Batch of 3 targets.
Target 1
Amino acid sequence: MSTTHSVDRGRHRGIIDRLDTFEDAASRAFAPLRMRTTGGLPFHGAFTSARVDQLVLTHITADPVVVRRDTSVMGSSDPDLIKVAWHGSGRAGVDQGGRQCLLNPGDLVVYETGHPYELPFWEPYDTVVVGVPSARFGAHADVLRRRVAMPVRADTGLRGIVSAMFQGMASGGVGDGASGAAQHHMASALVSLVCAAFSDTFPSDDEDPLDRVRAYCLANLGDPGLSAESVAAAHGMSTRYLYTLCRAGGFTLARWVRSERLARIRRDLADPVLAERPTAVIAARWGVLDTGHLGRMLRAEFGVTAREIRAEARQSV
């Protein structure tokens, strides 16, 4: 761009029907990423990107996909961005820095390009992501980094204003027709509001205990000993109360944990990078040590066996 206070609209815009094209657009907008669909399903997405005074503004709608930024794609010349996302719809999560969370529609969440992360989108989704050079946050950058993968509700008060700004970006027109100085002020205002929105977001006693339970289970799916008893003990509650919480949430813990494990096993079985890794090793990574019934479980859950998943993945390469 020719000036610092400029807007570069539509550099990435429109419907995308190839995952590699979508991956390239997101990598160019932010920093190198890797993506894959679940189960080799067809992919469709829409990606719109703009730059306003060094900030990267994106609106993304897409089919289920897993987004990863890991050490295999990270380089010393990559931009150091703190990414702030407003989650519009679709079941999704963030995994960074040893912390996992689930996202609900209307949540704001922070993650950063300087460390590996994974963003699983289990359903078609809609999100607005703003990438901010960490230097723009000044001393607040370290505060925000300590708050990665800690979503906050953004439906009232100051956070509601931030949410409204993000939804406005999704509607388009942010920065269009504005002078360079105006764009600079808009970007500065957004940075200041983000700092304020996340100024007090450490976990509190009134946090939804069911959210804590699910986040804990997702963080420990690889532990074969994960059970109602271990989860209850980790949260200082009785197993009876845990069962009551899960019933109120409309699910049983064991079935939910099994489904989450199987989803990840299926994802890894379909990953070309893991094509030479034995099925038993992949299953063990997600806490499933008895693989004798794995094929039957996968067929019951997804209609395909481990062998069929790998065969479909080879055909799609």
Target 2
Amino acid sequence: MSERLEPLSHDAYGWHHATAPQWADSDVYGHVNNVVYLGYFDTAMNVALLEHGALELSATAEGPIGLVVRNGAQFFREITFPAELSVGVRIEAIGRTSLTWGFGLFDLADGACAARGQFVHVYVDRDSRRPAPLTPALRACADALFCNPATDKEETPK
């Protein structure tokens, strides 16, 4: 995330995960701490993978695993407890062995984008930890969640 991201609308994300801040998510300043946003994004990403049949959680699972090699967030508005939130999830780039995930965190009280984030997953062999091609299930998930960032329209300020 080297360039400055702008807030996007809820509709810029084709898949959403409902969440809410916990009391312990707040910091001494009374708002949700910035590191918690990354946790919301990580949870939403893994739920999306599960719902699209691209993540196996059993102890006997085979196939590549995704390692986060880069993540980050840009913040636009504070979130305070209590709140009803939605994490928008999409795939912004598909590589041979990697996926770039995009996230938007929305406060449902006013619909505004509070933050945007990105994770880059590189898929690797479980044993050797060497890059491995996306499986058909990962590719299908990526195709289902793909949204070309070049077509983004910035959110209209509220």
Target 3
Amino acid sequence: MTSRSLIKNLSAQADGPVSVSGWVETVRDQKKVQFVVLRDETGDVQLVNPRAAAPVDADGNPVADAAPDTISDTISHLAQGSFVTVTGELKHDERVKLGGIEIKVASLTVHSMADPETPIKADSSVDKRMDWRFLDLRLPKNQLIFRVQTTLEHALRCYWVEHEFVEVHTPKLMGSPSESNAELFKLDYFDTVAYLAQSPQFYKQMAQAAGFGGIFEIGPAFRADPSFTARHATEFISVDTEISWIDSHEDVMILQENLLVAALTAVKKKHGDEIKEHFGVDVVVPSTPFPRIPLLEAKRIIAERGYEVPRDDDDMDPEGERQISAYVREEFGHEFVFLTDYPASIRAFYHMRSTDDPSLTKSYDLIWNGIEITTGAQREHRLDVLEAQAREKGLDPEQLSFYLDFFRYGMPPHGGFGMGLSRVTMLLLHLTTLRDATFLFRGPNRLTP
């Protein structure tokens, strides 16, 4: 039996016997010949099946009991999406528009016949496509999204491992909130309650107390955020890292720059041409260092451009993020910008305060093409200061006792960041919604499929 060939490898194979398997994309059923476009997970190929001439007797009359042309009949009834295996003769022919190759069918096996009516079309809404996500993901463009995401994750892991970071897998069921009481999913847990982790933050810091040094995790996180924007989800994959023995959040920013340069270099090398073909996007590997702008300075800059962030908002709002990104592109030719020196009023209690101005934190947001992808910071490692900052935020240190215990027996100065994998993928490929960059999206009104 001829072993299955992947379609992407056919152009390098010599003419001769071949076997391919995949989904039927289109059927052109003509009088003398049939053409089928078959797609597998690597590409498309054209199948050709010349119809057998109807047998006739010596007088030229059709033979009534002649055997039917089984292959032709089967092809005539194939619906889009049917899964088949075909054996036949591979032939290179530059006249064939689809890759310059075709396969003349010798045998065809139908493994599963698809329903003739497809529930989604090219112009279906994003919600309709999410209802039928497995069909939506058959499109080569959509499959490319997750091949790119795989390369992105692999490149990040390679950088961490080469620099002797340790990969950890933190629990997602917690006995107390991981950041605050807001945006928490609460659930029954035997005779008590548990919470779904909003981030691995506490456990990343525990690893520093344990002496692990640099650690990383790529895993799920949960936010009970009733947002319906194109860039939010209730369950997402968080990319997190933490390092010890830092001098300031500047060390964290340098780490993130290096990680992103490594990841985007790998994506550009492996998928750059395909990304350009399917998404019209040139992958840009950023230069380092990325521009750095204190938050108050960024607000002044965008005010001079004609936009003012609402005065009751200590943070940068979405329009402000777009404006400062436009400024950085114009002034520095850069897609990234670090906004630094965020007010303590809008930062987590564990962010270290600035020595020069305790109202500010040693933290940053990283903005990419107008959207925030990361919050990073130096963490507070002194127990007494950490307890005081928790009380300032209205948190009870007693409820954080397991976390605060990490700091009772020696904790090095440390810091780190977290970023959403789907949001990074969305911005890399210039997608309009996080849903397309998520294998199966979860939001306030979506728990299926």
